[in-house]
């Protein structure tokens, strides 16, 4: 049952990742592209957490307690490296989201559009 649930979660996360990549590639609205980029980012973060998950029960937090043998602790502790990577990725993703949203809002204020095709025409027309 647990294997089925892990497979289901993995397939769902890959579907979210593909949905995010598809949305970034096909949508012309910058706000929709930012939302799809966030969906893909969240799917990747959850995949990293899933990679660090241990299938032994009970799962111990990564804090060594004296009543455990070190070997037992190593076999049942959650790997803290994926958690640290995800925490870093969440902060970077938030900064990226704020920056891209600020750029989209500022471009809308200056040019009145957030459509990528119109932006390509505006930027292409200014270079000539």
Write the layout of secondary structure elements.
Blueprint: H1 2-26, H2 30-51, H3 70-76, H4 80-111, H5 116-127
**Number of β-strand runs:** 0
Give the class-level CATH name: Mainly Alpha
* Largest sheet features: none
**Helix-strand pattern, N to C?**
HHHHH
Poorly predicted runs are none
Number of domains: 1
Task: Tell me the span between the first and last alpha carbons.
Answer: 62 Å
Indicate the proportion of strand residues. Answer: under 5%
Mean pLDDT: 86
**Structural classification:** mainly alpha
Quaternary assembly: single chain
Q: Which architecture does the CATH hierarchy give at level 2?
A: Orthogonal Bundle
How much helical structure, as a percent, in the residues? over 70%
Radius of gyration: 21 Å
Shape: elongated
Transmembrane segments: 6-25, 46-64, 84-105
Keywords: Cell membrane, Membrane, Transmembrane, Transmembrane helix
Pfam family, one: Oxidored_q2
InterPro entries: CPA3_antiporter_subunitC, NUOK/Mnh_C1-like
Task: Briefly summarize what is shown.
This protein has five helices and no strands. It is mainly alpha-helical and about 130 residues long. The longest helix has about 30 residues.
Describe this entry's structure for a reader:
The chain is mainly alpha-helical and 128 residues long. The protein has one domain (2-127): Helix Hairpins. It has five helices and no strands. The protein has helices spanning 2-26, 30-51, 70-76, 80-111, 116-127. Helix 1 (2-26) packs antiparallel against helix 2 and helix 2 packs antiparallel against helix 4 (80-111). The longest helix has 32 residues, at 80-111. It is elongated, with a radius of gyration of 21 Å. The mean pLDDT is 86.
